[in-house]
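Worked Example 4.2. Consider the chain below.
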Amino acid sequence: MRSQALPGFVASYVFGQMEISRVRGMAERGLGRDFNLKDFHYEVLRQGEYPLGYLEEHIRAYIACKKNPDRDECKEF
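Applying the procedure from the previous section yields the following structure tokens:
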């Protein structure tokens, strides 16, 4: 089993899962009826690998831009 070969693997996987769930909740509350799970998944995955600390920052920017797409910094969304 992979978890026996790499003891930190399970912990890091679970921590990542918890963080993604947390920012998903943040996006659902922030966007309300405008929340789209497919768009959220795209935003999580489109940056490739990056530190989890950046995930919240990116999703906060995504929420702000979904609410007000005319802002200059929202061109990427």
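The two ends are 40 Å apart (CA to CA). Residues 7-31 form the longest helix (25 residues). Compare this with Example 4.1 before moving on.
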